[in-house]
Specification:
heterodimer; A: 133 residues; mainly beta; five-stranded antiparallel β-sheet; three-stranded antiparallel β-sheet; 8 strands; 35% strand; B: alpha/beta; nine-stranded mixed β-sheet; two-stranded antiparallel ribbon; 35% helix
């Protein structure tokens, strides 16, 4: 029996602040206080300078589509098709995988400006992105 | 000089494609024994075994589980599971086996991969299995199916270079044209660009026929020293160059997750090909055929560009103009690739090697590349993450 529920993220000690941010409606990034590097995925040791002085701060929540693919065949019924898989480059220079929502699937384009919108009804809401006007 | 590495045996399961009743380890064993027969060797001669696990029948220590199944004699010196996936494992098998043989760690290495992906898993389970190796927290929840992940790569190439769906389709047409000449291929009926474009849309821009197959099957290689090869019957094919690069052009750091890749298009194959050709003392013009990992239609395009057989962004035109097809200036995947010959998951990339070896031996009949003396094999590692390149040459 193939799953019919979208997989939910399971926070780790390193990522807990991110998911708490999502629950509060805020996109947060894990940033090194020593060198300023935004580390993504969240980690305890800065990938640029090796410092353990990691902090969390709110991101603007805006960015641009780096690439996308409109999915017409899903592996499970948890993902009603068609849906848009995308890579979004945040203005802070971090790249997230996400879904583009709140627009027709054929309206998505590379370079499109997008803003975060959080999944409804989940303990740890996923960050989706929608086109900015 | 005498410990230079040659491929003396290649083998496959009795059939590839739809093989009811097959099992993963059974397919492994068929291919292994086929390759040993081809080499003129037996199990007693093998002292190193490489495998790369199974989707249908995964094992904690896959290589030793297979060695047990096959009956590898005690006293073996190197049994290693390279769990690095279909795209890179074959190149890494050869890379690591060559290093082990050259350094004297072993004398005869057997590299095998096989799976009954078609008959062993339901279609949905196969699709799901191939999609599950993404970051559980930051990728899997967004539905990154395998075709969609490569769709991201293709869309970026279309954006940056104007590559068209018709050009992507021509890659599929090319693979099928080669498979049409291969009696063992899973799919052989010739197709045209219109057939490819009108097949079912899976994940934009990929239609069904732009995707690789789901098949049963196994392949195997036997490698040894040049000195040992002198006593064996097959035409030896030398490993002239082998290299692996982690990261693509301009990347600051290596990555594991697809979403954390830097440049999706200007892949590390460029540097690996440069170094492998350098080891071989050869240049691009010396390469007679290319085996390029073709999980989806965009990849052969990236490989011909990065490996330097055409300019950046010209890969679509390369295939659309027929340069990779039978009789073309650089035939690509003369067996039909994973898009038309077979793709059993983990073994998919390994089929590139038996075909390359047989081409260099002059054994491929209707699909023989005339005068083939040098083959390049370009592999794909992880999530657009690492790039093996192997140069094979007809024994001199």
């Amino acid at each position: 029996m193939i799953d019919d529920v979208r997989p939910a993220p399971v926070p780790t000690p390193e990522s807990q602040p991110f998911w708490e941010g999502c629950a509060a409606g805020e996109l947060r990034l894990c940033t090194c206080a020593a060198c300023g590097e935004h580390n993504w995925f969240p980690r305890a040791i800065c990938r640029a300078c090796g410092s353990a002085d990691i902090t969390w701060a709110a991101a603007r929540g805006t960015g641009a589509v780096y690439s996308y693919s409109v999915v017409h065949r899903a592996a499970t019924t948890a993902f009603p098709v068609p849906y848009v898989l995308a890579l979004v480059d945040l203005d802070e220079g971090v790249r997230l995988m996400t879904n583009i929502v709140d627009c027709p699937v054929d309206a998505v384009d590379v370079g499109m400006r997008v803003g975060v919108v959080f999944q409804a009804g989940q303990e740890y809401p996923l960050p989706f992105f929608r086109p900015l006007p | 000089m005498d410990r230079e590495v040659v491929i003396v045996g290649v083998g496959e399961s009795r059939a590839v494609g739809d093989v009811p009743g097959s099992t993963s380890l059974g397919l492994h064993a068929e291919a292994a024994l086929d390759a040993l027969r081809d080499a003129g060797l037996g199990k007693a001669d093998v002292d190193a075994v490489f495998t790369n696990d199974s989707y249908v029948d995964p094992r904690v220590r896959h290589a030793t589980a297979f060695a047990e199944y096959l009956g590898v004699p005690a006293g073996a010196r190197l049994i290693r599971t390279i769990g690095m996936g279909s795209g890179a494992s074959s190149g890494l098998f050869v890379h690591d086996a060559a290093a082990a043989i050259a350094s004297g760690q072993c004398d005869v290495a057997l590299a095998v991969s096989g799976d009954n992906l078609l008959t062993g898993l339901s279609r949905n389970h196969a699709v799901k299995a191939l999609s599950d190796n993404r970051d559980a927290e930051f990728e899997v929840p967004f539905g990154p199916t395998l075709p969609a992940c490569f769709g991201l790569v293709a869309r970026r190439h279309m954006h940056e270079y104007g590559t068209t769906p018709e050009q992507l389709a021509s890659v599929a047409v090319t693979m099928r044209a080669h498979a049409a000449r291969n009696p063992r291929a899973h799919m052989r009926t010739p197709i045209g660009v219109d057939d490819v474009l009108s097949s079912r849309m899976i994940a934009d821009p990929f239609t069904l026929l732009m995707c690789s197959l789901v098949s049963d099957g196994a392949a195997a290689l036997v490698l040894t020293t040049r000195q040992r090869a002198r006593d064996l019957p097959s035409v030896p094919v030398e490993v002239l160059g082998t290299d692996v690069v982690y990261g693509s052009e301009g990347d600051l750091r290596t990555h594991d997750a697809l979403s954390q890749a830097g440049d999706l298009l200007r892949i590390g194959t460029r540097e690996a090909a440069r170094r492998a050709l350098g080891q071989a003392g050869l240049v691009h013009q010396d390469v007679d055929l290319l085996m390029a990992y073709d999980c989806f239609a965009i990849m052969p395009i990236l490989f011909v560009e990065a490996a330097g057989f055409c300019g950046p962004g010209e890969g679509g035109a390369f295939f659309a103009e027929g340069h990779g097809g039978p009789g073309g200036r650089l035939p690509v995947n003369t067996h039909g690739g994973m898009m038309s010959y077979a793709h059993p998951g983990n073994p998919g990339g390994l089929f590139m090697f038996p075909e390359a070896v047989r081409q260099l031996r002059g054994e491929t009949g209707d699909r023989q590349v005339q005068g083939a003396e040098v083959a390049m094999v370009t592999g794909y590692g992880g999530q657009m993450a690492f790039w093996p390149v192997t140069i094979l040459g007809r024994g001199r």
